[in-house]
Design goal:
Layout lengths: L2 H10 L2 H24 L6 H23 L4
Helix pairs in contact: 2-3
């Protein structure tokens, strides 16, 4: 999926769903970091992609807060 489509999909999601997604992405990042430290992580690129997705969600949350949106 292209970046613009991902961002547009995130903008359509409600505020509560964005917060849940943010939380689940952080848990997944923690799990990947643990696997990395234990030497069990095979795909190191997944860390970078996950961090990008977290940044996208944080950006959309900040936009909503700045605009005062409550979905």
């Amino acid at each position: 999926m292209k970046k613009n489509k991902i961002i547009e999909e995130l903008r359509k999601v409600s505020l509560e769903e964005l917060k849940e997604k943010f939380s689940s992405l952080h848990k997944e990042l923690f799990n990947l970091r643990v696997k990395q430290k234990l030497g069990q992580l095979k795909n190191y690129a997944s860390l970078g992609l996950l961090k990008q997705n977290i940044a996208r969600v944080k950006t959309i949350l900040a936009e909503n807060q700045k605009l005062g949106k409550r979905k």
